[in-house]
Design goal:
Layout lengths: L8 H9 L3 E5 L6 H16 L3 E6 L16 E3 L4 H9 L3 E5 L11 H6 L3 E6 L10 E4 L6 H11 L8 H14 L10 H12 L4 H8 L5 H13 L1 E4 L4 E6 L1 H6 L22 E7 L4 E7 L6 H5 L4 E2 L3 E6 L3 H23 L1
Parallel strand pairs: 1-2, 1-4, 2-3, 4-5, 5-6, 8-9
Antiparallel strand pairs: 7-8, 9-10, 10-12, 11-12
Helix pairs in contact: 2-5, 2-6, 5-6, 6-7, 6-8
This protein binds manganese (II) ion.
The site of manganese (II) ion has 6 residues, from loops.
């Protein structure tokens, strides 16, 4: 499926032709796909003479430090003035890898205030952001893959070199858990094949981003899985809770528990996994599921959202009440499922 059709391609190209200053923004808690897609697009737009700023609502987690030029991603949290200026002087803002204005947190006002036109490229369900041009594909594994296709459809494929391919590969690899979920589309491997031919060292990128730990990370995983995880066999679910006290005791840092929520799904009879973290202002819930089991509706019922197999929400409450709420919603979900199959 082409994203740029004969009807809309000229409009898209005009938006870019008419823009000198371009800002590329992604969601808070930027992940490998958010920064990979942003830096891939930024590289190509720079090469055709655009002045490009890449900005995220907050800092890029240290686990992505090995990504080339990662320091060029400006953080609204750490460099507010600079990002505000880039947004207000932008002619065009690319919104990558998020579907609603809430996903950009405190950066939202600066984005909405800007007179820049907005283009969205994203693979999350049900986009609600108001934009001038929308490219949405919830069936695509990653925004990075969408950006790769858009660059080609714009006729700029010649600018996809090893560096751009590294960014595209990074986004595709991280959003599929190294091609272990959302990764059945054969086109993924055609693109990966192209990346490899351009010289991308996939094993090195995997090792540096997905298979690198600090001692602190291994210890907090050990603690949480041993002492803070409960299994509910009736609900086919695991619940992991990280309290404020444990965050202090284990010197919690942003991003350190990334990937934790997926681990219980490796137990054959566990179809759902929930990770509840006691953040300063709310309980942050990460939800994962296997196969046709859907966590997006459960998270939507708590004001959050996401994909069928990976979603999240925030509740202003206690850990106990948050867990009780998740259990209640999951119980209802399973009851509905039984009604449908009976
Ligand atoms: Mn993504």
């Amino acid at each position: 499926m082409a994203y740029l059709t004969s009807e809309n391609k000229d409009i898209f190209l005009q938006l870019i032709d008419n823009s000198r200053n371009i800002a590329i923004i992604c969601h808070q808690g930027p992940d490998g796909d958010a920064v990979g897609a942003s830096l891939a697009l930024s590289s190509v737009l720079s090469r055709i003479g655009k002045s490009v700023t890449v900005a995220a609502p907050d800092d890029v987690p240290k686990s992505y430090a090995s990504i080339p030029l990662i320091a060029s991603v400006r953080s609204f949290f750490s460099n507010r003035k600079e990002v505000e200026e880039a947004l207000s002087s932008a002619d065009l803002i690319f919104c990558l890898d998020f579907n609603s204005p809430d996903r950009i947190g405190k950066m939202k006002d600066a984005v909405m205030k800007s007179k820049a036109r907005r283009v969205q490229i994203d693979h999350h369900e049900a986009p609600t952001l108001e934009v001038d041009f929308l490219i949405s594909d919830p069936n695509c594994c990653s925004t990075a893959m969408m950006v790769y296709k858009v660059i080609n459809e714009m006729g700029l494929g010649e600018h996809i070199d090893k560096l751009v391919a590294e960014y595209v590969f990074t986004g595709m690899m991280t959003d599929t858990g190294n091609f272990s979920y959302n990764s059945r589309d054969p086109e993924i491997y055609e693109i990966i094949s192209h990346c490899l031919r351009l010289g991308v060292d996939k094993d090195k990128i995997y090792r540096e981003i997905l298979n690198t730990n600090t001692e602190a990370r291994i210890r907090i995983f050990g603690h949480l899985l041993d002492k803070c995880m409960t299994i509910d066999n009736n609900l086919r679910a695991a619940f992991i809770r990280l309290s404020k006290a444990d965050m202090n005791a284990y010197r919690y840092e942003k991003g350190i528990t990334e990937g934790l929520v997926n681990i219980p799904l490796s137990i054959p009879d566990i179809d759902y996994s929930f990770y509840l973290r006691e953040d300063p202002e709310c309980i942050r819930i990460s939800a994962r599921s296997k196969g046709t089991n859907d966590v997006s509706k459960i998270c939507a019922a708590m004001g959050g959202g996401g994909h069928a197999n990976a979603a999240g929400a925030e509740l202003v409450t206690t850990l106990d009440l948050a867990e009780a709420r998740v259990k209640e919603l999951l119980t209802n979900e399973l009851a509905n499922e039984n009604n449908i199959t009976e």
